[in-house]
Amino acid sequence: MRVVIALCLLAPFVAMLWVGSYAKVDPTFIGIPFFYWYQMLWVLISTALTMVAHQLWRRDQRARSTTKGGAAR
User: Which residue spans traverse the membrane (predicted)?
Assistant: First the structure.
C-alpha cells in the first residue's frame, strides 16, 4: 500500500523533471504550445494523485489501528 502511495506522490516529480519529454511546441492545444499545456495538465493530474494517496494513507492508517487494537485485546 505504501509503495503505491509513494508512486502516486513521485510520479509528478519525475514527469516535471524529465524536461526533454515535453520541451517542444507541437502539438498545440487551442493555440497553447505543448510545453505549457502539458505542465498545466500535470497540475490536475498531481491533484488527483495526491487525493488518491491521501485516501490510501487514511485507509492504511485505519487498517493498522484496527489491527493494533485487535491484537491488544
Answer: 39-57
